[in-house]
């Protein structure tokens, strides 16, 4: 080997990668290489684990990018093999907060041990082939970088249907997304026509499709819908680990070819962009409900997850939510609210009441439009319902006092569930007698079986009996268990397990039991709404439909069915289900897209509103 122009050496173990800065003193001398210099593609191999795992190897290449704890080295083009299945680049760890031993464009030799650490040390994440305990020799600087591999049209096409269908028993780099991204691991790639399908997250990530979304099946607003059996593996996540990313919304375009290196973190492959990114706005505008305005002949019910709203929220949070309720949702008669926190938000005071929050919200609504709303909730036991620590999120109800009435009965508390009790006047529904049955809810409003094991560390539903134009309407507002803990779509467990599903199915069963009791007692008009944290085709929602409820989101054209965006997948989490008596002719439904698609969002959920034709009204 020729004499180096300069020699920089680091000897850093995996422990240094995970905890603390590197020591100033050099590490122990490394043993002699087990083999002569190897091609990078040989170290990577055509698979998810290097054939040289645990061995000491030496490779030669050009530094493609440098991060805080690692750099990426790629082989020059003339050293590549002819196999798309083998990556031509490697990640080299040099330790947290240590000085990088090389710079972009350096011609380097790297001698180190081949490791396959999992991103973040989490078992559900994939492994990334990495050289550790590395000696780095710099021979020259300022070399041109290898041309990036183009993704999309006139390059390598991203898989469009399969993430991983064989449990990693075969390596299918053309058809399986996980194998495709493994074949490009650590390489320099480029994309053109990047179109945003999820706004910039708080973690600095952006989901895109390439080639302006050609063939991706985007809807009219530029969203990529999650469908049963199609997880949209053609999505690509951009990450700001190496260069800042702009604040963008759905439909915006990122100009010029984007170039970066392929990496993996937090359950998904990522393109770590290098260089400045320019943006062309897509001009997407917030919606107003398309339901007829102010007719008064239909009952308007809505659901809205207000994302941890409390006195600790931003200075305009209550006003912004109120403005959306008034001008975007047209002041519905009844609103089921999710994620109202206690008054001091994430402060650990031990006081779960949210009276000040509710009062502030109804005042903001009144100030925005003059409509007067009443509210109801049942404060949870401190720390018992999950969500942000000490926030005590809960569900609640708002209703217009000029159109809807609620007779309060009993004294609800966090341990008492609603019961169906014979009406004191002996009638079959009060002064009107239609659709009311011979029972009433006590307490009203009250929680649904709050001590049931299904609600452990989760929000308890709130049920209430309203009257609209003389007819009883039973409304149950929900916030089912989150998807936290599920295996990631692009994770190491294939086929993946959705660990949270049984919990939501159990919760749906408890709610379905109450709905069935209401039906059996002659109460025909029932609304079940809220953030169910699951899709319209899921087992939990199916359980609710089995007792005779109709999911109104399924009455919309497929391209309009989404209330939430996650990693570029537009999906339904928020629902309004109604009894068949309320699902007939004259009932309409609308998802009002005002938040999820936009980087400047009031909440991460879009609200939904239904206009219900109610039989038997006066």
Total of DSSP H or I helical runs spanning 4+ residues: 7
> How would a crystallographer describe the biggest sheet?
9 strands, mixed
Percentage beta strand: 25-35%
CATH C-level class of the largest domain is Alpha Beta
Strand order of the largest sheet: 7-8-14-15-12-10-9-13-16
| CATH topology tier name of the largest domain | Deoxyribonuclease I, Chain A
The CATH architecture of the largest domain comes to 4-Layer Sandwich
Radius of gyration: 28 Å
Structural class: mainly beta
Q: Which spans of ≥5 residues are poorly predicted at pLDDT below 50?
A: 1-34, 428-435
Kindly state the percentage of residues in helix: 10-25%
Return the average pLDDT rounded to an integer.
Answer: 92
Q: What is the count of distinct domains?
A: 3
The overall strand count is 33
Backbone shape: elongated
Distance between the termini: 94 Å
Question: How would you explain this protein's 3D organization?
Answer:
The chain is mostly beta strands and 618 residues long. The protein folds into three domains: 6-140, OB fold (Dihydrolipoamide Acetyltransferase, E2P); 149-280, OB fold (Dihydrolipoamide Acetyltransferase, E2P); 299-612, Endonuclease/exonuclease/phosphatase (Deoxyribonuclease I, Chain A, 4-Layer Sandwich). The chain has seven helices and 33 strands. The strands form six sheets. Strands 7-8-14-15-12-10-9-13-16 form a nine-stranded mixed sheet, with no helix packed on it. Strands 21, 24, 25, 26, 27, 28 and 31 form a seven-stranded mixed sheet that branches. It starts with 5 loop residues before the first strand and ends in a 6-residue tail after the last strand. The relative contact order is 0.10. Mean pLDDT is 92; it is low at 1-34 and 428-435.
